[in-house]
Specification:
mainly beta; eight-stranded antiparallel sheet; 8 strands
């Protein structure tokens, strides 16, 4: 709605010690995940897709599939789509990791 005009900025909301919610609206959520080298976190399993973009460092992403565990490694500048049907995924940092996670509101 471009007729609405400028809107107020949003301050990040801390979801946990490593996750900040940058944007929350009725269309999507945008979270920033910050993990030190060797740390891990889980995402997904909430009925939404997750679009991941690595801004800094690297991320090992492990999911459980019907044929066993699947793993992908992303480096800075790479993206991945985690389908809603994939369930929960483990994110393991390789270096200091900064990752954006776009998903649907629950």
């Amino acid at each position: 709605d471009y007729a609405r005009g400028p809107v107020a900025s949003q301050d990040p909301q801390f979801i946990s010690s490593s996750i900040e919610r940058l944007v929350a609206c009725d269309k999507f959520l945008l979270d920033r995940l910050n993990l030190p080298d060797g740390a891990s976190a889980t995402i997904g399993g909430d009925g939404s897709f997750h679009l991941l973009a690595v801004l800094e460092g690297g991320a090992g992403i492990t999911t459980q599939t019907t044929s066993g565990p699947g793993e992908e490694v992303l480096s800075a500048g790479q993206t991945a789509l985690l389908p809603a049907a994939a369930g929960r995924a483990k994110i393991a940092s390789q270096g200091n990791l900064t990752l954006l996670d776009v998903s649907l509101p629950r």
